[in-house]
Automatic annotation (TrEMBL):
Bilayer topology annotation: Multi-pass membrane protein
Role noted for this protein: Choline transporter.
Ribonucleoprotein found in the keyword field: no
An annotated GO cellular component: plasma membrane
Name assigned to this protein: Choline transporter-like protein
Keywords from the named record: Membrane, Transmembrane, Transmembrane helix
InterPro entries, per the entry: Choline_transptr-like
Species of the source: Asbolus verrucosus (Desert ironclad beetle)
Amino acid sequence: MVNWALRFVLGIQYLVISGGVAAWYFSKYDCDRNKQELDSPISTSFFNAVKFHMGTAAFGAFVLTVMDVVRVIMQFFFRSEKVKCIFKCCCNNVEECLQFLSKNAYIETDTLLICFCEDKIINDGLSKPYYMSRDLMKFVENSKKIYGIKDQPTTGSLQKTTAVSVVSSAEIFYIT
């Protein structure tokens, strides 16, 4: 239980730091905001992590804790020291990979949404097409409503839809 709690707190820490850094870094692209006018990005990121991403941190901590439990149980059943050493080496490698993947998953969880929202604000879809599918654009729009990110007014929603469908057709064309 202590192992899970420690990993959970570390997961929340990664989410908070990555969210604060992403909010600060991507604020330079928005012409209306100034970096000095950011309203406490770390505390905002903490509240977003607790409100929206707590399950991600809990699941990541659970996966890593299960790996530890399996390692302890399997070491108990092995009699030979050589087999224990080989198994311990393999488990350590798998655990390092899982920790690396979970750490990057925490960072991308908080950062990726901000990237898509800022890209949608910068790119109006008229000069160049969006590189998102329709479903992803709907997800970004809903997420922007949740996070309270305001969109710049655009001139033609019909042109946006056309640009998205052209990109989707092009992606299908290249895949087949």
